[in-house]
Design goal:
Number of helices: 6
Largest sheet: 7 strands, mixed
Helix content: 25-40%
Structural class: alpha/beta
Number of strands: 7
Radius of gyration: 16 Å
Shape: globular
């Protein structure tokens, strides 16, 4: 993301815009691919209202949620059950901010739900993710795929192209995908 991204997302979150919620099918896929957290660190990039970060914490991961929108981070933090009982929240842009500001040097799980499509420089973003991913870790990406919506749907342009999917999946030792309607879930391992 870029400063332009913050300028785009902040007003939407501040005005109450909300995005596709996690459902039971997606939660099961997440659990199947990641397993129990066992207090390993997890990072949710573009955490929005924090639902995925809270799900990771419920699975036993020591979770940090980051988003470039201060309003999204405030909304996520406001839903915590109490101090010390949920994820750590940070307002930061993973594409430009200092990764050393994160609470962990490496993460067993990094998630990126409905964010990859919006990243301008996908190759540079993936390089940053790889630097943060612990050996043997999993990068979990959920993104919309181009061409899955009806031609009359005003949101039909939101999916990633085959070329963008190729950038995402290149260079990983293991790539597992599962389709959910217009979305595709990727479990990527170094």
């Amino acid at each position: 993301m870029t400063t332009a991204s913050t300028a785009y997302w902040e007003p939407l979150w501040a005005q109450g815009r909300r995005y596709r919620q996690l459902d039971d099918t997606e939660n099961r896929l997440l659990e199947d691919h990641l397993g129990p957290g066992l207090d390993h660190p997890a990072l949710d990039i573009g955490c929005g209202d924090g639902s995925l970060a809270r799900r990771l914490a419920a699975l036993g991961y020591r979770t940090t949620g980051i988003d470039c929108s201060p309003s999204a981070v405030a909304l996520a933090a406001a839903q915590d059950p109490g101090p010390g009982h949920g994820p750590v929240w940070r307002c930061m842009d993973v594409t430009t901010d200092d990764l050393g500001a994160l609470p962990e040097p490496a993460y067993a799980v990094i998630t990126c739900r409905l964010v990859y499509r919006w990243i301008d420089d996908k190759a540079a973003f993936l390089d940053r993710v790889r630097r943060l991913l612990a050996p043997g870790g999993t990068f979990w990406v959920v993104t919309e795929i181009a061409g899955r919506r009806a031609a009359t749907d005003p949101l039909r342009h939101l999916g990633i192209t085959p070329a963008q999917a190729g950038i995402l999946t290149a260079g990983w030792s293991a790539v597992h995908t599962t389709d959910l309607d217009v979305l595709r879930c990727y479990a990527l391992r170094p």
